[in-house]
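step: validate -> pass
step: tokenize input -> pass
step: predict -> running
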Amino acid sequence: MVDLYGQYLKIKDEIDREFAKIFQNTSFINGPQVHEFSFNLAEYLGARHVIPCANGTDALQIAMMALDLKPGDEVITSPFTFIATAEVVSLLHLKPVFVDVEENTFNLNPELIEKAITPKTKAIVPVHLFGQCADMESIMKIAERYNLFVIEDNAQALGADYFFSDGSIKEAGTIGHIGCTSFFPSKNLGGYGDGGALFTDDDALAEKISMIVNHGMKVRYYHDMVGINSRLDTLQAAILKVKLKYLDEYIAARQKAADFYNKAFEHLECIVTPYIAPYTTHVFHQYTVKLKNCDRTALIDYLKINGIPAMIYYPVPLHLQRAFLPYGFKEGDFSVSEKLCQEVISLPMHTELDEEQMNYICEKIKLFIDKSY
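step: predict -> pass
step: emit ->
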């Protein structure tokens, strides 16, 4: 699904030089590369503050801690995403409230959010799934109307642009009160291990987040609050600092690959290629299609036999996961998400895909469809 080694070979000398510096000064925690990367990413995003942390899941938890959400508070989010988004809600003894997604974008449906708001609702966590933004302008208007916080789960859409109706443009993750991202190796901007970050334009929130990630400290050994230990180590920061310079190039390569797939599949009735909403660019963290009247399991098995990986993101919606059974959700509660879980399939998508590889993938898929139907 990804070719991290091929990508590494192109930047090997830069990575190795950064590593050599760290090994010489042994600044493995909170070294200069951490601060350099934070500054560079803030500049790239147009954000006032970027605070790194240990992983994307921690970023979401830290955001909710920084906003002083209390046990019993309700947090609205999507049931069609990775579990981390709702997992941290439960860990903090908050209540996850799911709202169904749009069938075309896979993102939170703003038209359904207001129906889910109660006096206990305190925050909305839209997920920018697979690489494009949720409808943030609509979501922010709802949040302002009901005095709610917005935490953007931007683990999959770093580098995507959002276009507002007034013509202004902001980067994904910089629109809500806090943005969160992951630097998991397979992400568009990924390290060689775990990593994450939070973004905000609020100075007071930034200071609080910076304390939470480091045991609640502002001054060493003086703990003003209960925090956690969630730091981005210097080695990961060094890798990310190098790769950030190439992020736009990586995104362009993914978009080129997506365009190739789209053209190859445009006349196949059983494949619905990704829809891109008019208010966002798509950075294609995943290339995910919907299958119509096609045996998904058989296709995956056929591709595997032919050396082609394929993944299902996600086979079970969050409200039907065993972990969330205590909340009393049942099948049929969020029909769009449930339907998508039965239809979607993701094909290889990374920066090193070449035309020969994509031709092979597409021809095998076409051959399977011709034989099957």
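step: describe -> Residues 111 and 213 are 35 Å apart (CA to CA).
step: cleanup -> pass
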